[in-house]
Amino acid sequence: MTTSPPSPVADGSPLADDPPRDHGLGPRAAAVLVFGSSAAVLVVEIVALRLLAPYLGLTLETSTMVIGIALTAIALGSWLGGRIADQVDPLPLIAPALGVSGVVVALTPLLLRTTAQWSPALLLLVASATLLVPGALLSAVTPFVTKLRLTSLAETGTVVGRLSGVGTFGAIVGTVLTGFVLVSRLPVSSILIGLGTLLVLSAALVGWRARRRRRATAVALATVVAGSLATAFAPGGCDAETRYHCAQVVADPGRESGRTLVLDGLSHSYVDVEDPTYLKFAYVRAIASVADTAFPGGEPLTAHHIGGGGLTFPRYLAAARPGTRSTVSEIDAGVVRIDRERFGLGPSTATGIGVRVEDGRLGLRRLEAGSHDLVVGDAFGGVSVPWHLTTSQALGDVRRALDEDGLYVANLIDHGELAFARAEVATLAATFEHVALLGKPADIGLAPTASAVGGNLVVVASARRLDAPAIQEALDARDVGWRITTGDDLTAWTGDARVLTDDHAPVDQLLQPDRSRTAR
Fold first, then answer.
1. Among residues 2, 111, 162, 205, which one has the fewest Cβ atoms lying within 10 Å of its Cβ?
2. How far is CA 243 from the centre of its chain?
3. In degrees rounded to 5, what are phi and psi of residue 258?
4. Alpha-carbon distance 206 to 200, whole Å?
5. pLDDT for the residue 155
6. What are 263's strand-pairing partners?
7. Which parts of the chain sit beneath pLDDT 70?
8. What are 376's strand-pairing partners?
9. What is the pLDDT of residue 348?
10. Cα–Cα distance between 175 and 207 in angstroms, integer?
11. Which residue(s) pair with 413 in the sheet?
């Protein structure tokens, strides 16, 4: 008579069909591997957003796509890694997973920038691959390590729980370290090349006993070095990588003292460092036309600017209206540094321009009630105005800061059906008594037979009546080529657009970007 072997019980006995063995991986080494691989996945995800921003824009859709691909990689790696770990000894697989991930991560800047330059149609495919491959391989490390450490049923909960916690903590550290330290101090290409090198060296450390691993590591390191050198010559480089942007300063070949500030591939500001009254972009000339009309010529103003860029309009006010005091909320300290180093911004005591490195919405809250003649909105995150600056609550802060005759003037960019611009005009109309819209005739409904093209629009709002004929005369004098619309015509143009609020402001969905990727 034969008997069946007893079932395993939770008494410290070995797992069925898996006798104790020397897996060569202690608890500290296991924790380090899980912590490091989890942190690396998040570093790659965050930095990938910055690499893609110059080509796809820093929009909600871009962020959602990158996060979705990263989560897919994590899920795929965890699932397949667990399946593989149950079929073969996972220890020899850890080093290749780290090494291949390191090579792909280090080559990512070169691959993405070269693809964007020579084959833009393939950019999404290449970007997906450079996220999926290292993300899946690094995510597979956790089930590999868990299988190696899990040798008896009695410690299942402890081992799985500990390594899961360590991996989550690693992801948190990777996120915080990248967002608060690495991006503000290093170019994104340097971050990825450094991380790739670290992963390849980790692979060498894990597989140092096998000679073939040594040869593979040497090849991987050579690839990383070659890719690093090639990245320096890859297209799409930046003059400076700030915390938020890839920034370039482009000289104007037709005007010796002219400079254009390009952020993430978009022309944000044009500055003549010798003549601040020279205004090249049409929307800036339109804003100047409004200010020149609304206030007596030469009279100094108290102005607040939401968004700085090259500080074109604050410089204009300082030159055209001596004694004007301008405060600027600019979130990117790197852009402010460029203003000082490349555009010759002097101290506030000499220029009357004080720049605060802060979020525009928080800057509005600092302003005292009725303290300003003029508030100018010209802040952009990628291709759109940051949503929290477009809502009725944000515009309520603007109105509170203005005196009874004060003006709010804002630059908007939209294309296609101009759904975002219509919604913002509707929101302004719900906040201010008088609103006007400036733009190309076809875009603002004054050329019914022509199709809207889109681009820059300037909206004006105030508690006082706006002198539309005088503004139109000023636009014509500056050769802007724009028209102004108010009253019933503007109401008809706005239609049934929904008012934007802090609770519901789908700016990224309403706005249709320009596929040519220029913002002038």
1. 2
2. 9
3. -90, 140
4. 10
5. 79
6. 247, 266
7. 1-24, 57-58, 209-237, 382-383, 513-520
8. 305, 409
9. 83
10. 28
11. 456
Using DSSP's 3-state secondary structure scheme, residue 330 falls into strand
Q: At what angle do helices 419-429 and 392-401 cross, to 10 degrees?
A: 50
Do 70 and 135 form a contact (C-beta atoms < 8 A)? Answer: yes
CA distance 119 to 488: 47
Please, which residues have CB within 8 angstroms of residue 410's CB and are 6 or more apart in sequence? 376, 377, 378, 385, 424, 458, 459
Distance CA 310, CA 319 (A): 15
Return the structure tokens found at 180.
Answer: 């608060």
Strands (E), 422-480: 434-439, 454-462
Query: Residue 514 has what pLDDT?
Result: 62
Contact (CB, 8 A) for 486 and 468: yes
Strand-pairing partners, residue 96, are none
pLDDT of amino acid 5: 45
CA dihedral 480, 483, 484, 490 (to 10 degrees): -140
What is the pLDDT, as a whole number, of residue 219?
55
Question: What's the distance, CA 484 to chain centroid?
Answer: 33
Structure tokens at 246: 């890839």
Residue 270 DSSP SS3: strand
HEC string of 365-381? Answer: HHCCCCCEEEEEECCCE
Of 229, 218, 319, the C-alpha closest to 273 is 319
- Structural element, H or E, at residue 171: helix 156-177
